[in-house]
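Why does residue order matter? Because the sequence determines the fold. Keep that principle in mind as you read this record.
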Amino acid sequence: MNVSRIALAGGVAASTVLILAGTASAHVSVQPQGEAAKGGYAVINFKVPNERDDASTTKLEVNFPTDYPLASVMPQPVPGWDIKVTTSKLAKPLDMHGKKINEAVSKVTWTADGGKIEPGRFQQFPLSVGQLPENADQLVFKAIQTYDNKEVVRWIEEQKDGAEEPESPAPVLKLTAAAEDAHGATAASGSDSADKKATDDHAKDEQTTASASSSSDTTARVLGIVGIVIGVAGVAFGVLAGRRRTA
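Structure:
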């Protein structure tokens, strides 16, 4: 009996820990589709879970970092949601592809327009962003989640080194090492292929020339031998003819 009670109590405790852990980790987050490489472009998803049992999420605001502004931000349409992209003037213009950019996206807002995130559900909001900074390891986005009962949850607390995760952490996008220039690699590969082809063609030309030269030499030798044979035959024929006349 005591053993059964202990086992039951342990199971309840374990279930409580799992429930609490799930609740603690259910916050707005951001993840790339594939990788988010420094200096490149990426598609990222803001994942928004509903943490309430009696209300639905109807609005998400994502504020973009001002220390590493992103000039190119394109949202993917989400059925049932209206999307608004807000830009702000930069104190220091950005240089992108040889052009000066004076404005960058400061906020993207998704507002329910027939859609909503119901209890026990989550929704992803995709964005194409770039050009990602080359001198940063991560980007911090501050998000605000609004429910249809007017409750507002601010996911704006930044993680401190060595500290526990804050109660309402801001979404963080981890950046990976810069990818190699695919165009440069392709060009180099094409150059190598061209060099190899030229070398192969030159070798074939030399082989063809050598074969032609060898063939010419062989033909000349054969003709020489035939000439000698014909000459010997002629001499022999002359000798025999002379003998017949003498006889």
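The mean pLDDT is 76.
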